[in-house]
Amino acid sequence: RNDKMQGIVQKIIDLFGSGIGKEIAVFVISMLPILELRGGLLAASIIGMDFIPAYIISILGNCLPIPFVLIFLDKIFNWLKKFKTTEKIVVKLEKKILSKKAQIEKYGYLGLLLFVGIPLPGTGAWTGAGLAVLLRLDKKKSSIAIFLGVILASIIMSIISYGILDKIETSLIRYAQCRRRRHGLIKPDLF
Q1: Which of 65, 95, 114, 187 lies 20 to 30 A from 24 at CA?
Q2: What is the pLDDT of residues 155-168, one digit of tens each?
Q3: What is the pLDDT of residues 45-71, one digit of tens each?
């Protein structure tokens, strides 16, 4: 699944080419359903973007569509159900979204936060917003839960995409070595 996502992200990066900046590419990828923040951070790491700007841009890109989804999804679905050609697609999409409702029904807004925040296939801000709409949850509380879920997902994906744990471990090892040298516990390297 991750290889598939990586392939999609790479194709989008190639599509954008050098015509637009790295930041815009990451922002757009983060806005897209399915890819979302996961795809944005993965793309940023592939194209060698610095972590902090990538982190902020991916969060902003992932969060930007959510208020619109919360406000307009129900209206768009109802309008599309008026036409035979799109009604089946909407009903199928609603069923797919609602198939993931157990966690939200059981744990409420905390469940919504965790659903969005734990980056697994079929989860994320778009699906979480769709669930909030279809379950008729409060839009303001849902927005907060989804935003916090995006932050949680961003932390998890940063660890995966940028190898943050390795960097923390390396920093801690260097810090410990410096302390030992300072206290004379180990001899400094002569070369």
Answers
A1: 114
A2: 998 888 777 656 66
A3: 888 888 899 999 999 999 999 999 999
Name the E strands within the chain: none
pTM of the full predicted structure?
A: 0.77
Q: Is the separation of the CB atoms in 129 and 73 below 8 Å?
A: yes
With tokens 């932390």, the residue in question is: 155
Residues in the chain: 191
3-state secondary structure 126-163: HHHHHHHHHCCCCHHHHHHHHHHHHHHHHHHHHHHHHC
As a whole number of angstroms, the distance between CA 43 and CA 59 comes to 13
- Which residue in 64, 59, 62, 72 sits closest to 132, CA to CA? 72
For residue 171 the two structure tokens come to: 């920093």
Q: Residue 49: how many CB atoms within 10 A of its CB?
A: 22
The residue written with tokens 């637009």 in the block is 20
Are 62 and 146 within 8 A, CB to CB? no
